[in-house]
Amino acid sequence: MLRRQMLAMGVMALLSGWPMTGWSAEPLALSCSQSIAPQRCELMRLGQLSCSDLPLEHQRECEQLFTPPLNCFRSRDPRACQALQQAQQACDSQRGEARRVCIRERLPAPDCTRAAAPERCRQRAEAEQACSERYGADYRECVAKAMR
């Protein structure tokens, strides 16, 4: 009996701190200052601001694309990593689709000069840009069609 009561109290405590309609950026922003990793929390908030208008099934993939890493030192493309961090700061006043468009405008094109097949690299970059507002399997199918 005591175990059930403790479990119910824990669930109630969790639910009372989180909004019932889903994730929103405001509660996360308030708690970032009290977080164990406040810098990482703030970066995740930036990713959430970019993707908050998408359906839940696409938000996770969108957040992976638009959440800047904490450090660009070990990034595969440090130039693009730093550009994403700067773009997130420049587009801070916007949300949702407008924010994604603002960020994409500020990101550099991929560097295809060092690619093994530069023409294929340019073709892929064009395909990815054309399919940029799609996510998941729909995105992969769009890029594959554009590459043919």
Can you give me a brief rundown of this structure?
The protein is mainly α.
Task: Looking at this protein, list some descriptive labels.
148 residues; single chain; 2 domains; mainly alpha; 66% helix
Span between N and C termini? 63 Å
Provide the low-confidence segments as ranges: 11-29
Quaternary: single chain
Number of helices: 8
What's the total count of β strands? 0
Mean pLDDT: 81
Q: What fraction of residues sit in β-strands?
A: under 5%
Quickly give the structural class.
mainly alpha
Question: Biggest β-sheet, characterized?
Answer: none
Tally of discrete structural domains = 2
Q: Portion of residues in helices?
A: 55-70%
Q: What would you report as the Rg, rounded to the nearest angstrom?
A: 19 Å
What is the ordering of alpha helices and beta strands?
HHHHHHHH
Shape: globular
